[in-house]
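Quick one: structure tokens for this chain, please?
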Amino acid sequence: MAAREKLVQIGPSTIDAILPLLRQQDYYVRFAAADTLRRLNYIPASPEELAYYIIGLREYDTGLYIENFNKLVAANSAAVDPLILVLKDSNWMKGSDIDTIEVLVAIGKPAVPKLIQALNDPVSRESAGIALVLIDDAKGRQAVINLMNQQGVSLSYYAKNYKQIIKNYDPYDTTSLDLLWLGLALDEYGTKEMAEYYVNSGSTLYEFGEKWAKAHGYRITFKGL
């Protein structure tokens, strides 16, 4: 904290030294850098700089910061690397990846190549896979299917036991791929009851349930479990 105050006191001449910290993988480093830049009245000079800055502040969820969300989507491919950086961050204090996934899905196909690469990282693997399934790009989906086959996953098992798997899901287990396989199981074996359960489970499962319902002509009301 004292170091940040010192930088603010020195003034805008410190901005160039702070900017590289926005590209660090640790949540705390990125946030401290972005918050210091805000206090220095920093103005990003490019879509990429803007993306790193907004993502560093962690202010892009659609509920509170729809304008920033839209700016990231408008930045298109320039926002993909900083968003992938968030997925690869194992610090649980960063919060849920759902907001990051939503931006990547809104960006769509330009995000697919980097998301496929992110499947190789055990920390980002599940969120990257979820984004690829929701984007519904053929290459991205095949990459997820390849991963599923490599791990010997049975989607029928997930479809049959989805309620228990959801009940036991640990959001702090960064190596779990249960949400990803649940999403694919809904695509493969989905029913209206299953989609309703997903929607009312919230978070990422809500996105899967909504996608399935829309594709099958259903409208599901969120009630909560």
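The chain has a mean pLDDT of 91.
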